Amino acid sequence: MIQTDGPGAVAEADAALAIVHAHGGSAELAADAEVGEQLFAIRRAFHPAMERRGTVLIEDVAVPRSALADMFAAITRIEREHGIPIPTVAHAGDGNLHPNFVFQPDPADPDAVPERVWAAADDLFRECLRLGGTLTGEHGVGLLKRRWLRDELGDDSYELQRRIKQVFDPQGILNPGKLFV
């Protein structure tokens, strides 16, 4: 789905359509704003639809737009190697992808993400970084991705970030034990 707006929207939409067709894709323009909104409703239903297939770990990575095809190929390989479906939606215009790791939870610990899912996520994050991307395009590193942050920043930058936190929080009272401990 491609959306354009503003004074050049029609010309931009026509150009995007021509590019899709030139590369063997199939696409058509929405007939009007109402049809466009219906298409967006379908897009917004993606995540709830995935939740019907199992528990979903929704992730967020970004790669240079020139690396999108390689990243999608890597996701397909990672799905196959780990036996985990990873349907992915994207904001392709800025290289932001939302891979959804779909799995069946362990009945003994239904809130835990199984290690095999983390192994697949590890492969996906490392591939993203190898392609010149970043661990997050929108949602932040948070607690779930902190184990990969040093890989993205490198030792020197990671240590600098830790020291900056120490300057502003010498007693460790601001968000204690979260990221830079």
UniProtKB/TrEMBL annotation:
Its cofactor is FAD. Keywords: FAD, Flavoprotein, Oxidoreductase. This is FAD-binding oxidoreductase/transferase type 4 C-terminal domain-containing protein. InterPro entries: FAD-bd_oxidored_4_C, FAD-linked_Oxase-like_C, FAD-linked_OxidoTrans_Type4, Vanillyl_alc_oxidase_C-sub2. The lineage of its organism: Bacteria, Bacillati, Actinomycetota, Actinomycetes, Micrococcales. Residues 4-179 form the FAD-binding oxidoreductase/transferase type 4 C-terminal domain. SUPFAM superfamilies: FAD-linked oxidases, C-terminal domain.
